[in-house]
Amino acid sequence: MSFSKLNTEGVMLFEQPFARVPYENYRKVFRTSQKAIEKELGAVQNVANELIKKDASCSDADATVRAIDGMISRVEGLKRKLSDMHESAGAPTLNVIRERLQHLGSVEELESSSSAEFARWADVRLDRWLVDWSLRNGKEKTARMIAQQKDIEKLVDIDLFSDIRRIEDALIRKSCTEALAWCSENKAALRKLKNTLEFDLRLQEYIELARARKSVEAIAYSRKHLLQWKDTHQHQIVQATALLCYPPTTSCAPYKRLYDPSRWTSLIQSFRMAIYHLSTLPTEPLLHLAMYAGLASLKLPACYSHETRNVDCPSCNPDLGQLAKEVPFSHHLNSTIVCRITGKIMDADNMPMAFPNGQVYSKEALEEMAARNDGWVTDPRNPDQRYRFTDLRKVFIS
User: Fold this and answer.
1) Contacts of 285 (CB under 8 A, 6+ apart)
2) Which structural domain, as residue segments, surrounds residue 318?
């Protein structure tokens, strides 16, 4: 029973992004609400302080009434704004958080990994990972179809990846506008992480002005958007200033690199890393991370030799083997030998039998072969070599 006991902590290792993404989304809603409250109530407080300071005998009653009406109007406007924000963003995000926490909470009530309830939970998890993989690889229609068919829309981050795809598509079109708008929305978080994506985007817009030989516009743009970064990016700003002296066809290495169109690809990668970091998403699909864990327990040097591959071993599969190259070889205290004919494990009840040439197969498989061939057996790897079943020797696993 101990072998089937559910390791809840191990299951939860993959679930941090699952819970954190909607939490981070709600933090954004909270910060926006907080800014609106501080702005409007700050203005109301200032008006109230001015009214208190005025001499009651000299004050204009009509002006006071208008000021109070203005304060009431501001507070009512703030109430409507907060209500709309709650309905459009706050409540849906809270529903997603509630749904996901309930989904995670259900697994803590399960005791066995072999139970039917855990199998159903694991199926939902696999569907989530398939949606995540589809979204990361630009297959949004497939992701939406899986989410709708499996009724897991609240358990996947389709909207987040739609925003990522929208901004990346704009960068592919050589437009930084959408990415800069995202940087503006997340300025405080990016500053806390010391992320330089905004500067890189501003520098790229400056480079495009230089590429178009719009020197006046480039200088004005530099003064407005680049000089504020002079404390941390002095060298790059100086180099960018000198870029105006070099045409896009220059062969001078530092400026040729600045004009290189591949900088747009680097910007896409930088943006993706930044939004993954802010959303606490791993840089690789969760499906890959789970497969890494499984492949690391199976991978052996024999998996990469054509002669020793096992058709039933996942890491021997050419495609999965490519993924397994990134994980270390497995370490087993006790050997497990699998028959290459039947795919069954060889043990005391189905012991290994060795040919004179050293090839080993299971007793069960060779007995069946001998029964079909009047006591003769053939090595599948060397069909020309036939032996009597009685010539084979037993192999004992230590």
Assistant:
1) 129, 132, 133, 136, 137
2) 284-323
Contacts of 117-125 with CB under 8 Å at 24 or more apart are: 118/6, 124/150, 124/152, 124/155
Same domain membership, residue 99 and residue 166: no
pLDDT tens-digit readout, 27-67: 888 888 888 888 888 888 888 887 777 755 555 777 777 88
User: What's the number of domains the chain is made of?
Assistant: 4
Residue 337, SS3?
Answer: strand
165 and 210 in a single domain? The answer is yes
Q: Which two tokens stand for residue 381?
A: 């790897």
3-class secondary-structure state, position 293: helix
User: Residue 250: left (phi > 0), alpha (psi -120 to 50), or beta?
Assistant: beta
- Other residues' Cβ atoms within 10 Å of the Cβ of residue 135: 23
* 67-106 per-position pLDDT tens digit: 888 888 888 888 888 888 888 888 888 898 999 999 988 8
My answer on whether 249 and 165 are in the same domain is yes
Q: Is residue 388 domain-resident?
A: yes
Q: What is the pLDDT of residue 56?
A: 54
Assess if residue 132 is contained within a domain: no
| 156 sits in which H/E element | none
